[in-house]
Amino acid sequence: MQITSFKQYEEDYKKSVENPEQFWGEVAQNFQWRKPWFKVLSWNFSEPNIKWFEGAKLNITENCLDRHLAANGDKPAIIWEPNNPEEESVTLTYKMLHERVCRFANILKRNGAKKGDRICIYMPMVPELAIAVLACARIGAVHSVVFGGFSAKSIADRINDAQCKLVITADGAYRGNKQIPLKEVIDDALIGCPTVEKCIVLTHIRTPVSMLKGRDVWWEDEVKHVNDICEAEEMDAEDMLFILYTSGSTGKPKGVVHTCGGYMVYAGYTFSNVFNYQPGEVYFCTADIGWITGHSYIVYGPLSQGATSVLFEGIPTYPTPSRFWDIVEKHKVNTLYTAPTAIRSLMSFGDEPLNGKNLSSIRVLGSVGEPINEEAWHWFDEKIGHGKAPIVDTWWQTETGGIMISPIAAVTPTKPSFATLPLPGIQPILVDENGKEIEGNGVMGNLCIKFPWPGMLRTTYGDHERCKQTYFSTYEDLYFTGDGCLRDEDGYYRITGRVDDVLNVSGHRIGTAEVENAINMHAGVVESAVVGYPHDVKGQGIYAFVIYPEMHGEAELSKKDILQTVTRVIGAIAKPDKILFVSGLPKTRSGKIMRRILRKIAEGETSNLGDTSTLLDPGVVEEIIEASKNL
Ligand code: WT7
């Protein structure tokens, strides 16, 4: 199933479009099924109703673990690199990982978990996080991993939306020189979560935690009561594998649902191809398992292919900005998959952190999460890849399950800042505002996908109508990505960024409405409007215009108060970079905020504001412009 030449890519692509069922049926033969499918695909985008590998039975953990045991049981599956480089790293072979997953699966059962139950995971980047994820999959429970940076309220909202029965957490996490009290955050969250019966707590930083009798149990104690034999639950290809919450332009985050069979095939196929993974190589994805990149390209994709996946607990700049390069050298990393924001941040330290570092093991580089600017692309290429490692700029989304538009390493000729071409099976189209297809090359439009692929979302948890409205109703019979896109003269795709009210801050997806709601919860705030603006390192920064007439004391302190509220309501990742106090917001006569104008002001553009004739009170704009100059 591995593509080794551009000619083969073209042939496979053609075949995947002309005969998708045959194409994916053949790809799926590379995985292990308990029972084969009777139909590869049935679908419509109007409901939507999408089924891949109908009738097939499997367990994804048999593909990620059991099937490697005979030939590769002693091969490293996970190499864990701790936050503190002075501490020992940990290598788990496939045999060891299998054993630990089975043990923890038995712990889950012992604590009442069954097939179909939802389980929330809120953990640091330690091997036990991967073990917890796989153990859920082993018993057919649905995991909902919540990134360690979210607040108690965000966690509670997610737990309640999915009606989780169990929570898996740790006492705390290390992040650089900080310690984060995870269990404390969970304790706050669980006050408002009536469905949660049990909470399993891993000891990691050994900070004091409260343990509620009857609800909270220690991971280490539980291990003593179980053995390492756990037969995998037989799952239908379309049974739910996991829920992952992500932000949109309106409302609360949605629980994107992925199912067992199609997701497995897509994560495995794209991992093997995009990174051109070779047996024995060491692969390092710097994402957190709390995001889709970690699900698909730290856990499921690599493990389904018998790869060695590095799991790093820390951050790129701790203890020094050489940390990534030290890890590459120490573990002889062959593939490094990271985010443009990390590249830009490391670039800003100059060449010094690279001095004396041996990066010669690197063969493939990857970028994900946001558009990569040319400067960062070239730096990555020259300084890290020494001009010899192909860069795969991978475009995809939580909803797509896996990489959609990307070069195939060592196969597709790359071009800085272009995600290049669709992978086999992916049929992108560009449309105008009215949904009319924009054909030909050298054009721009809204990026849609017109045919299903195995890794696509099936629904949004508990609210199928929302899934339909968000992704399948903007344009008839198309999946709408929310991204704008350029297709150049060569037919290469460049993603230009979101066209909806979704921000991408350091590769994290944040809805402007969510941030506004959080700011508006602050006592005394009357109204707010949030927009993104270009930020050198983060890609986008968050700019908040806030009406706060009864400001409490000094403006600077009041801003800090608001940041506290946002941190409480969503989490530190959603804190505005800039807050501007204003007396009014530019609105149309029908009361709609004209964000277009605010975006321009946030970008520092104060003369060409476009058409302002529909404004209710043009004076407001003048005032905001003046105030913005002093920020
Ligand atoms: C949004 C999806 C894909 C996993 C991590 C983010 C942006 C993602 C690229 C890229 C330009 C990109 C898009 C997309 N995005 N990759 N290579 N080039 N933009 O997943 O949180 O679901 O965010 O990230 O805007 O819609 P996500």
Topology diagram in text:
Elements: H1 6-18, H2 20-28, E1 39-44, E2 49-54, E3 57-58, H3 60-72, E4 76-81, E5 90-93, H4 94-110, E6 118-122, H5 127-139, E7 142-145, H6 152-162, E8 166-170, E9 173-175, E10 178-180, H7 182-190, E11 198-202, E12 216-218, H8 219-223, E13 235-236, E14 240-246, E15 254-259, H9 260-274, E16 282-285, H10 292-304, E17 308-312, H11 323-331, E18 335-338, H12 340-347, E19 364-368, H13 374-384, E20 391-394, E21 428-431, E22 443-449, E23 459-460, H14 464-472, E24 479-487, E25 493-498, E26 502-505, E27 508-511, H15 512-520, E28 527-535, E29 539-547, H16 555-569, E30 578-581, H17 595-602, H18 619-629
Parallel strand pairs: 4-17, 6-7, 6-8, 7-14, 8-11, 11-12, 16-17, 16-18, 18-19, 19-20, 29-30
Antiparallel strand pairs: 1-2, 3-13, 4-5, 9-10, 14-15, 15-23, 21-22, 22-24, 24-25, 26-27, 28-29
The structure holds 5'-O-[(S)-butoxy(hydroxy)phosphoryl]adenosine (WT7).
CATH class of the domain at 94-233: Alpha Beta
**For the report, how would you describe the main beta sheet?**
8 strands, mixed
Mean pLDDT: 97
Q: Tell me the number of strands.
A: 30
Report the uncertain regions: none
Number of helices: 18
Q: Rg, please?
A: 24 Å
Helix content: 25-40%
Largest sheet, order of strands side by side? 12-11-8-6-7-14-15-23
Q: Give the ligands present.
A: 5'-O-[(S)-butoxy(hydroxy)phosphoryl]adenosine
What does this structure look like?
The chain has 631 residues and is an alpha/beta fold. Among the domains are: 94-233, Rossmann fold, CATH 3.40.50; 502-628, ANL, C-terminal domain (GMP Synthetase, Chain A, domain 3), CATH 3.30.300.30. Helices cover 31% and strands 23% of the residues. A hairpin with a 2-residue loop joins strand 26 and strand 27. Helix 9 (260-274) packs across helix 10. The model has no long low-confidence stretch (mean pLDDT 97). The structure holds 5'-O-[(S)-butoxy(hydroxy)phosphoryl]adenosine. The site of 5'-O-[(S)-butoxy(hydroxy)phosphoryl]adenosine has 22 residues, from helix 10, strand 20, strand 24 and strand 25. 5'-O-[(S)-butoxy(hydroxy)phosphoryl]adenosine binds next to helix 10, strand 20, strand 24 and strand 25.
